[in-house]
């Protein structure tokens, strides 16, 4: 595809590899907002706060 723009990159910060790091760096270099997410509930958060944090990060990234 040509002319398609990526709105954001969500990546799992609990599972990284050389390939995922390369994709993340390419997105950052291209000016694509990069949003870290987790598979599991972060320590000290409840489920609602965890998901609201994800929503807030995505909303902010899409507003750029």
Structure write-up:
The chain has one domain. The chain has helices at 18-29, 47-63; strands at residues 9-12, 34-37. The protein has 64 residues and is α+β, with helices and mostly antiparallel strands.
Offer a quick outline of the entry.
This is Zinc ABC transporter substrate-binding protein. This protein has helices spanning 18-29, 47-63, and strands spanning 9-12, 34-37. It has a two-stranded parallel sheet with strand order 1-2.
Ends distance: 23 Å
Order of strands across the main sheet: 1-2
**Overall domain count:** 1
Low-confidence stretches: none
Q: What's the helix-strand series?
A: EHEH
Categorize the overall geometry.
flat
Count of alpha and pi helical runs: 2
β-sheet strand percentage: 5-15%
> Which structural category do the helix and sheet elements fall into?
alpha+beta
Biggest pleated-sheet summary: 2 strands, parallel
How many runs of DSSP E, i.e. beta strands? 2
Q: Helix coverage percent of residues?
A: 40-55%
What is the average per-residue confidence, as pLDDT, rounded to a whole number? Answer: 92
Q: Secondary-structure map with pairings?
A:
Elements: E1 9-12, H1 18-29, E2 34-37, H2 47-63
Parallel strand pairs: 1-2
Which descriptors would you attach to this protein?
single chain, 64 residues, alpha+beta, two-stranded parallel sheet, 45% helix, flat, Zinc ABC transporter substrate-binding protein
């Amino acid at each position: 595809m040509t002319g398609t723009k990526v709105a954001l990159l969500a990546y799992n910060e609990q599972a990284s590899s050389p390939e995922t790091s390369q994709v993340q760096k390419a997105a950052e270099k291209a000016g694509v907002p990069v949003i870290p997410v987790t598979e599991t509930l972060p320590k000290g958060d409840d489920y609602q706060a965890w998901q609201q944090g994800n929503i807030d990060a995505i909303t902010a990234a899409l507003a750029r």
